[in-house]
């Protein structure tokens, strides 16, 4: 079907003496082409617009949509440059980054798309009915490319020699993912849980951190549009209006804005375009789920475009509070994001962003659940059999308010592309929960935390121009300052002994780093990449421990701890190099090997029991990652198989472990961050994506992890944890997904989606106690969507079989106090796109 010609479409033919075709693209155009070279993909100046191969010499029209993927990656060849008016073309050979000659460099596309940083992806439409049918078959049968920026430049995911799991915005929407927490359902080596209601924790390849003190860092870090989010409470926002999510697995010691020792999650939001578009949807479900999302995008002025997105979500609690019979654990969240894109000149683009989020959750609590008889024999309490009914003597809550601003400027010069990224984020969280969940008179363990954090970051980098020669490079400087004020309390009532210690923590981290990475093309198929980063962290902490019981407590402080007022400071420095070699035996295959070093800064205890513990810094965590992998496509782009094997050697691994400040007294337990001597993580990650027939998509992701702590003795009783497995690291995990789309009439189609998520047994903590082991389980999800013109109607279900599984637990003696993953949920969504 031939699309209507946009009134502003334009084709400009360059002077013939340049020997190439120069096109200026507007938000929506029709470009005539005349392809005389069979089996060459259509493209412009080395930037592939479509992966559809032409089977014969044909002529037709190329329809460019400005609201889709970037006009990238570069260097996917052979490429045919075309200009329908003159039919001129310039074939380019070789598949490599940076292999263009000076003449080819002159062929670089000049384009304007409202704000030209906006994503573009072409859809090829044939002029004749036979040609249209042939190309539609190719489109339905092929696997779409995903463009990522993991190496600070836009590249095809399949050509990047890094273990990355990427989800497009369309995949996120179809899967019904609401937040970062939900990503664990689709990336087997990634785990997430709510240890605290406003403090989700993330683990990748078995590496993570449960420490939430002001003087420590996360092992797996989230970036929002290249802006570092240092506190886990700052990730409590909705995944809507998202372009893609990139999950970089393993240490990212060179190019990440902050050194990441476990992995990085890059969330890339959609950029505005001048072409008007809008969308809205409403969802209703069980547990009185009510959710609404809306987005509008368009032109404000010449060269200025903006977008605005909004979400709100509320539901009742999954738990019932026994004393009142009412539900508890309900949530309410609101999110707003706005972006403005400015094309200041042909060489300068500016992107301004702002977002604000509000999250509320009530009645948060754990409950006795697990093997053992600690609650019966020691406390004399018999737990209720229903896991979704709680009797806590004090209900919890969680409140998070956050906002952020960022500005990005890209200036193209004769030397390279100069990029400045400035970000500021503010997070205010207030939360509390009963980690035991028993009625009054038994055992109260009420943890509370109020935190305010402010982060300012500035990155300045220069990257080589696309197709600038055999060497592509990026160099940069990075500055971060974060200020965290955290009040953390522990209300304890055990056998008549009550206490209320309060830790008042003020921390400041100043981090400065410089980085450089380059890729040199040794041959047409062989590349060598080398990079290094130097990081200097200055950490300061003022920590005060006081008795807040007002003199009424039997023992004002928990047994085994004492009041203090200390101020500490320490510097941490590290070089983190990386060397990668990759080889492309064909256009559709990549083999790579990497050696890289990761670094996680040292710090200070938040919940230190004594002044001596508060002044003693824990060491930096160092990781060496040895990895080999392949990325391949088969059968005319219908099958994609990516495989990676890795060996990670950790030194001074930072782990959170439970200690008894008084041996044998379970009520004196605290979780302390300490350094294990060494740990080893070995594993395999497999991703398979197939489109065997038009309309059908099958995928599978598998992760195998073999983790071991080498030597680690903790506590005053000398508990030996050597040989234990790391926490939240199941040996086997996989996700299997299937999707089928079928046309059921003119302008209408129906799609069926299902996925099954499985993980083998795992331990929540490094202690590997039986009560902290979660058995193997699997979760089934499904969606059916009917689309008619601009309308869509979806019926969905998550955890359809209502599988009961734990997402957090507190082992005490031979018992455990736990929280659970969501039960079976279902609902309907109605959406409309303008």
Tally of DSSP helical segments:
5
The percent range for helix content is under 10%
User: How many β-strand runs?
Assistant: 52
- Assembly type: single chain
**Strand percent estimate:** over 45%
| Largest β sheet strand count, sense and barrel closure | 22 strands, antiparallel, barrel
Termini separation comes to 20 Å
Mean pLDDT score: 80
Classification by helices and strands: mainly beta
Shape: globular
Low-confidence stretches: 1-140
Estimated radius of gyration: 28 Å
Describe the structure.
A hairpin with a 7-residue loop joins strand 29 and strand 30. With 834 residues, the chain is mostly beta strands. It has 5 helices and 52 strands. The model is unreliable at 1-140 (pLDDT under 50).
Write the layout of secondary structure elements.
Blueprint: E1 28-35, E2 41-44, E3 47-53, E4 58-65, E5 79-81, E6 91-92, H1 102-106, E7 121-126, H2 129-141, E8 147-148, E9 155-156, E10 164-168, H3 169-175, E11 190-196, E12 199-204, E13 207-208, E14 220-224, E15 227-229, E16 242-249, E17 263-269, E18 277-285, E19 289-301, E20 304-315, E21 319-321, E22 326-328, E23 331-343, E24 348-362, E25 367-368, H4 374-378, E26 389-390, E27 397-412, E28 417-434, E29 443-463, E30 471-494, E31 497-499, E32 501-521, E33 526-547, E34 564-586, E35 589-600, H5 611-615, E36 621-634, E37 639-651, E38 654-660, E39 669-675, E40 678-690, E41 696-709, E42 713-714, E43 719-720, E44 732-745, E45 748-759, E46 762-763, E47 773-774, E48 777-788, E49 791-798, E50 806-812, E51 815-820, E52 825-833
Parallel strand pairs: 2-5, 14-17, 21-26
Antiparallel strand pairs: 1-4, 2-3, 4-7, 5-6, 8-9, 10-16, 11-12, 12-13, 14-15, 16-17, 18-19, 18-52, 19-20, 20-23, 21-22, 23-24, 24-27, 25-51, 27-28, 28-29, 29-30, 30-31, 30-32, 32-33, 33-34, 34-35, 35-36, 36-37, 37-40, 38-39, 40-41, 41-44, 42-43, 44-45, 45-48, 46-47, 48-49, 49-52, 50-51
